[in-house]
Amino acid sequence: MNSGENAIEVENLTKEFRIYHRERSVKSAIMKVLVWQLPRLERFVTLENVSFAIPKGQTVGVIGKNGQGKSTLLSLLARIYRPTSGRITVRGRIASLLELGAGFQPDFTGYENIYLNGVIYGFTRRELDEKLESIADFAGITGHLTQQIKHYSSGMKARLGFSIAVHVEPDILLIDEVLAVGDAKFQERCYAKIEEFKARGVTIFVVSHDPRAIARVCDRVLWISNHKLHMDGPTDAVLAAYASEEGETGRGGEGE
Amino acid sequence: MNDLPSYSGGFTVVGGVRETPLESLREIWRYRPLIGELVRRDLKVRYKNRVGGILWSLFPPLMQVLTITLMVKLFLTQVSNYSAYLMAVMFLWQFFQNCILDASNSMIANAQLARKIYFPRAVLPLVTLITNAMHFCISLLFTLAYYFVVPISEPIYPQNLHPKALLVIPVLVGVSILSLGFGYLLAYLNTLYDDVRFLTITLLGLFFYSLPILYPVEKVAARPGIYEIYMLNPMATWLVAFQRALLPPLAVEGAPPVTMPWAFMGIAAVSSLAILAFGFIIFERSKWTMMERL
Whose C-alpha in A22, B5, B100, B165 is 20 to 30 A from the C-alpha of A28? Predict the structure, then answer.
């Protein structure tokens, strides 16, 4: 396949976090130099040598247990973190929904947050004026736009985040666990929107620990296990393998 | 890093490869609508109830001017019209101090946003600088108005208002560069250590005494060897230059008059730029690891 048709390319991606166990203060840093202690630094590899390519228009799910690197992968694609080694190439406008809600400023009102996010995604204020009503309407928060985001319920935040992300006309949409929040009615609207995006050729990347959500929308599934890409293939095959492994270890994937 | 024309068009990141400072600057330039949006919002919060908000934010430095003027008049040397000289430098000092404190807190204050969405992190300290500079312009207008009415018998202005007053613009740029440099450095340190904010406040409190605010700079000029070293501090030079641009030289008993310190201003410009370059490069080098520690 021609690489130009890939929306996302990830090559030999490794991400390592440093964990500091000491008190984080200037005082302790000076003490450390004075009494010559080695820093107690631990390296923690969250993703090791992950490679995959996603063609434009594909809907890909990422599945795996908690703490295995799924969310880190999404954060790397959203450019929140930089890989320790490896390469990530993204072609097109990427909108991300990382854990409940988009990037919100808690002190901003809902209205200001819509503008802030819209501007970061590259829209002008005038373009956003036109979208405002539709964004608020989809999120169902029309009456709360002048309230500060910190007074929103988590459901409202998630709905607004999803609404902004789908209104910025992304070429690539990153979704982390958001399909699990909100009431059934809102979830149905999200699924409908995802179907609409799929039809329009938007590349979608969904992270979830819920195999049912993945099965519903994805064409392909990446299974991350033990910080590595354990399996990559069609939805049915990967989910079947995942379910049997879950059964063996005796831990249900739904209760988390 | 970004080879597409629109800043939201796509990207490539390679592990372990850093952008050059020039690439970072270009990216910040592309994100200027975001800077505008954040400044707009900061100003809105600061001046929530319009005129009341503006007056209220002028209140703390004015109280300091009042207290120090009384103290100087009662216990220290008799300097005529000291409050006018004090007000100019006090507002400039407040600008410097607020810039540093706000910029150093900017990464933490915007952590919620930064953890969820990509934008060049270096815009955050820059936004606090722009907001504070706008606020300083308001206090400058207040200062100029004050000079037209005080002292009541014979106001300082208009007869002392010269074209050299325009020098406040380069001085303001100089102080902005200096405080932004410190702001970048401290924004970085603030994500690294939890007690940086307290240290910053303490050090700023000490730094205040090394500047010609509480005492006229003529007192320092009366001691040759010390004055030259004293004025190597860029902030001291900017404060003196600012005062001299707006006001006639001060007559202090037993001390030589200090005129516009041109040579020291050249040194201050160089050192301010060097501090900004240093702060910005440190910030840019660690902008990714900062995100992991927020």
Answer: B100
* Nearest Cβ partner for A86 among B11, B15, B194: B15
The ipTM is 0.86
Q: What is the pLDDT of residues A182-194, one digit of tens each?
A: 678 888 888 888 8
Partner-chain contact A80 B116, CB within 8 Å: yes
Residue A13 inside a domain? The answer is: yes
Report the pLDDT averaged over residues B93-120.
92
Is residue A34, in this structure, part of any structural domain at all? no
Nearest residue on chain B to A150, alpha-carbon basis = B112
CA B61 to chain centre: 14
As for how many domains chain A has, the answer is 1
- CB pairs A-B closer than 8 Å: 116
How distant is the Cα of A171 from the closest Cα of chain B, in angstroms?
Answer: 9
Residue pLDDT, tens place only, A87-123: 999 998 888 887 655 678 888 889 889 998 888 888 8
Q: What is the CATH number of the domain that holds A206?
A: 3.40.50.300
CA B138 – CA B54 distance, rounded (Å): 8
Residue B2's pLDDT is what? Answer: 37
List A residues 125-164 in contact with B (Cβ-Cβ < 8 A). Answer: 125
Confirm whether A256 is domain-assigned. Answer: no
Residues of B with CB under 8 A from a CB of A: 6-16, 31, 33-34, 36-38, 41, 45, 110, 112-119, 189, 192-196, 199, 288-289, 291-293
| Domain with A169 in it | 3-29+40-249
Residue where the block lists tokens 């000029």: B221
Residue A12 near residue A76 (C-beta atoms within 8 A): no
Tens-digit pLDDT profile for residues A71-97: 899 999 999 999 999 999 999 888 888
Are B227 and B263 contacting, i.e. CB atoms less than 8 angstroms apart?
Answer: no
pLDDT of residue A3: 53
CB A219 within 8 A of CB A60: yes
Q: Residue B42 — left, alpha, or beta (φ > 0 → left; ψ -120 to 50 → alpha)?
A: alpha
Token digits for B82?
Answer: 């000291």
Say what the pLDDT of residue B5 is.
Answer: 34
Q: One-letter amino acid identity for A111?
A: Y
**Rounded to an integer, what distance in angstroms lies between the CA atom of residue B234 and that of residue B249?**
20
Q: Is A126 domain-assigned?
A: yes
Across A14-34, average pLDDT: 79
